[in-house]
Amino acid sequence: MPRPICADCGMHPNICVCEACAPVRNRTGVTILQHPTEVGHAKGTVRILTRCLANLRLFTGEMPSDFHQAGFDSVAGSHHPALLFPGPGSEALETSDVRQFDHWMILDGTWRKAAKILHQNPELSALPRFHFANPPASAYAIRKAPGEHRLATAEAVAYLLNVLEPELDTRPIAHAMRTLVDKQLAQIPARLHRHYQ
How far apart are CA 81 and CA 64, in angstroms? Predict the structure, then answer.
């Protein structure tokens, strides 16, 4: 008997969060470049963004040729793209004047794999680069981050939009994130829950 999956997100009903997602009508363009190993990952949060955000593009790959084949050449209709990724040369988002940037590039993958995407795509490295100085605490207990103040991709995009569009209601993303965490924890024996707190 075939395993039941959601027709929209491709996940098993036990971890599907499609019903928890609601529209977030962001004006700011967001493009996510996703490492291939994240596609279909049960704990991945990009599926929340694809269900919520009105202005989102998603491309999968690692090398420039991968992204080109997927249809990504440049930020269509944008003259002022920026990259959200911490590191040398990045500026604090919260204290920078970012009004001129109308489109943001986000890398989705483990920190090592996201850094590899950046290294192998010089076009991205040439973009103005920003990081969070004071991000909120992550509620994403089901996947380990390599350090403090690291957010899941959906959390990072929600916080980015909160800074750029203060009037935008991003609560549907937070609600879907909580639902994802709850559903994932429900699949784990209760005696192990302490490891995820």
Answer: 17
Residue 18: C-alpha distances to residues 10, 48, 91, 168 (Å)? 10, 7, 35, 21
pLDDT in the model for residue 162? 97
Could you give the CA distance from residue 118 to residue 64 in angstroms, rounded to a whole number? 10
Measured CA to CA, the distance from residue 21 to residue 139 in angstroms comes to 17
Q: Which amino acid is at 193?
A: H
pTM: 0.88
pLDDT of 43: 79
CA nearest to 16, candidates 27, 6, 30: 6
Tell me the residue type at 39.
V
**pLDDT value at 163 more than 90:** yes
CA torsion sign, 11 to 56 to 181 to 43? positive
Q: What is the DSSP string of 127-166?
A: S-EEE-SSPPPP--TTS--SSTT---HHHHHHHHHHHH-T
pLDDT band at residue 74 using 50, 70 and 90 as cut-offs: low
In whole angstroms, what is the distance from residue 16 CA to residue 136 CA?
Answer: 25
At CA 114, angle to CA 60 and CA 132, rounded to 5? 120
